[in-house]
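User: I'm writing a tutorial on reading structure tokens. Could you give me a worked example: one chain, its sequence, then its tokens, then a sentence or two explaining what the tokens reveal?
Assistant: Sure. Here is the example chain.
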Amino acid sequence: MSAPAVDQREVLERYDADGYMIFRNVIDPELINEVNAHVEWLQARHPELRPEQLGHVLMQNDPFWVRLISDDRLLDIAQLFVGPDIALFASHYICKPAYSGQPVLWHQDGAFWPLEPMEVVTLWLAVDASTPENGCVRLVPGTHKHDVAGMRDNTDVESVLGKEIAVDVEEDKAVDVVLAPGDVEVHHPHIVHGSNANTSPHRRCGLTIRYIPTTTRIVSDELPWASAFLLRGEPGVNPYQPKPTYIPGEHLAFRGCEEWS
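And here are its predicted structure tokens:
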């Protein structure tokens, strides 16, 4: 299944102007139900982790996770921004539980990532409804045109990153990214964004997916990066993980898991 046809020129013009885009109804409810089951399965397997910290180090041997980020509907969107040769750099569930979900302080993704050049796009897949009440993503349009600023520690508040951007943010210009389950928000690695704590009675879960063109090099002592997978096209400059094999009883069962055996 492929993503709905869009005008690539119009998409890129809006992305260049604002630094983000929203695509509605990308992933069907049946797959979103499986994603919910995956989140619950991960939390049961990793009770030592907060639900906001279900990150890429867990996905190397997780066939459902790799199947999800390989979905053609997501890759078709990524291809609009990074071209036909696509790899995964990282992926991370930020699952904010009701009443106690931690905030994500203002930051630019590119401040954290070992990528040369910084050609990468984030797809943020809504697993739950994402609203101002439960701590949706907030971003400042146009800030992707700025350089990457430094980061500083912030221990005054418990947060997902423990850090914040070391410059003043014009919060009055921020917009709330309101999404329904299955919607996808796309943003630039330099855009200033964050999210508030979830003090509502409703969970807010989203999956970040960081796609790179295979001409972008992952520069890290941890290579091969645990979540580096070739997903489409030519391999380019990086080594990649082999796609994991599904083992009944060891992995989450999902539609089509037999094809991963």
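What the tokens reveal: The chain has one domain: 8-260. The radius of gyration is 17 Å.
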